Amino acid sequence: MNILCLTNEYPNKNYPKKDSPWIVPYFAREWVKQGNRVIVVVNSTKFPLICYWGVNFIKPFLMKKYNIIESNLSSRTWAKPFDLIDEGVLVYNRPMLKYIPSGNFTETRCKHQVEIIADILSANGFVPDVITGHWLNPQLRLISMLTEHYHCKSAFVFHSEVTSNYINKYNVRQYIKNIHRIGCRSKTNSEILKANLGLPYDPFVCPSGIPDQYIEDRQVSGKTIRDHELQVICAGRLVNYKRIDAVITACAEFEKEDIRQLTIVGEGLLREDLEKSAKEHSFSERIVFTGRVERDALIHMMYQSDVFALISEKEVFGLVYLEAMLQGCIVIAAKGGGVDGIIIDGVNGFLCEQGNSKELASIISKILRMTDAEKKQISEKAAATATQYSDSQVAKMYLSNILE
Q1: Mean pLDDT across 340-348
Q2: 274-311, pLDDT tens digit by residue?
Q3: Which helix or strand (DSSP H or E) is residue 210 part of?
Q4: Which of 167, 286, 326, 347 sits most deeply, having the most CB atoms within 10 A of its CB?
Q5: What are the φ/ψ torsions at residue 216 (nearest 5 degrees)?
Q6: pLDDT on residue 70
Q7: DSSP 170
Q8: DSSP labels for 45-80?
Q9: Between the CA of residue 162 and those of 215, 312, 341, 373, 375, what are the distances in Å?
Q10: Mean pLDDT to the nearest integer, 308-322
Q11: pTM of this prediction?
Q12: Of 247, 265, 357, which Cα lies nearest the Cα of 304?
């Protein structure tokens, strides 16, 4: 099967983009492993040269507003066309010029991009059986236009762009008419999009997966959750919406006999503030900031921990929750934060109000009061749930949802 995927993000080892999600690369690589031909066209954004000069003056504002780190700013790497082969995936970066950072691409620019994509496909003797894409602007419009051209199955997956504001701004109702299936990254966002568009059906859910090797190598059967002196771990970018501060505040309510250590994995603009907050709570001697670590190292740290806690606000989907579940952690996640429907409260983990440190502390207290058998049951059910979300399985599920 020939699969064309459109995106404006494709981080990889040769052209990394810090803090950019590796969503499309994981799906595309799995589709290739499963015997499909895959072409990815990256519709990255290019701004007038003066914008790259002027960005240095507004870096602090951009970093705070968009939760990005400095190494992403002023970069023109993705503002130039280039091609690459990523584990069998043919990737073509074809920038699109835009004058207003959050604005729409013009109709003329989109038509020209469709011609560019058609030329790429023609040069490869590639007629798509399926067209799909991620991130609303401009992928939705391009997929709509390409579907008319190739008369094939098509889909688009929404991320955070499910609000009425996005729907109206980017003319979503107009363009989804040509697209066969639409999906979302979580059950919560699927429900929001269905309501805001007045759809008679549920958009399919398109979660990310865990590397198959991690599932094959898991060692949860030998894991025991401690009665006291819990090892708590939290992983994510140290930015406002992740609400790492709420995790620190909640854990600081407990004595060393209950929580021995809180490990915070990740880097970001708030690290200094969070370290200061830990000191104010007299919790600094029991908190460890590791900075950014490699994925394998994080997996090992999760296996050594008892509880994983992250109660982000407005999280679209959190793969890190699944990774922690696979390692047998008792996971505390945010309600409406992307893993509703995966985590069942009190069964294979717990759900907490977003950013609510008091509720989080209450859940930790509940875990401390649980019997060994109760903790073991939640830990094992968490791991069993996570095994259903391997990279290969979610890639197959994604494709089957389009072809239904």
Answers
A1: 92
A2: 998 888 877 788 999 999 999 999 999 999 999 999 99
A3: none
A4: 326
A5: -65, -30
A6: 47
A7: T
A8: EE--HHHHHHGGGGHHHHHHHHT--GGGTT--GGGS
A9: 32, 18, 18, 41, 36
A10: 91
A11: 0.88
A12: 265
